[in-house]
Fold 3-oxoacyl-[acyl-carrier-protein] reductase FabG.
Amino acid sequence: MDLGIRGKRALVCASSKGLGRGCAEALAEAGVDLVMNARGSEALEATAQALRDRFQVSVTTVAADIVAEEGRARVLEAAGDVDILVTNAGGPPPGMWSDWTREDFLKALDGNMLTPIALMTALMPKMIDKGWGRVVNITSQSVKAPIAVLGLSNAARTGLTGYVAGTSRQVAPYGVIVNNLLPGIHDTDRAVALDGGVVKAEGITLDEARARRAAAIPARRYGTAEEFGKTCAFLCSQHAGFIVGQNILLDGGATLATI
């Protein structure tokens, strides 16, 4: 399918690895020029060059912490006038409710709620002026059904979801379409970290931890960054203009919900 976005320009955050890379790759395959961001320059540059070589698109890189005000300013300066924004940031660490302090919550809110909001606030006005734009926020399946040990993420990402619910309907009349993608467990570094916590806590092997988690997913496997990216690219396409303010699960059926 031709997504109709060849020649558009996208900012994809935290895109050197994992789900962010999957999104950047799918957009590049559709002919979109990229501004890519990540904290580590080595992996970022390697990924960017791989996408340039494979898809012959323009790729600008900015090694910066998107959550930090200074880093975000540098990313926005490099991004300039973009048509597509994909927000993404690593989730807070797991833990227990009794362990989290006010500072822990403020850090989670900065990373997983306030940073995406700041990026949308900065970039959507020009999309509105052009009469076309796409925003996809990578959140989590936990906004549909909470994950107890990820309370910091549950709270911050649900706040972003509420913001998008209203804002998406305010900007849709101007051709700017905002939606959220809600990943379940995917085969990324985040999965390795979460499974590693189970290994440490229960004294089992990593393979055993992965097998146990996969067995609880109706699809009986982890998702892939490639399939996640393809879904993101569709939401950024010309064909997604009637999908407004939605929260789309990619979790292999793991979330027990009718709607």
The chain has two domains: 9-184+224-250, 186-222. Helices lie at 18-29, 41-55, 69-79, 102-130, 151-171, 189-202, 206-215, 225-235. The chain has a mean pLDDT of 96. The CA atoms of residues 191 and 249 lie 17 Å apart.
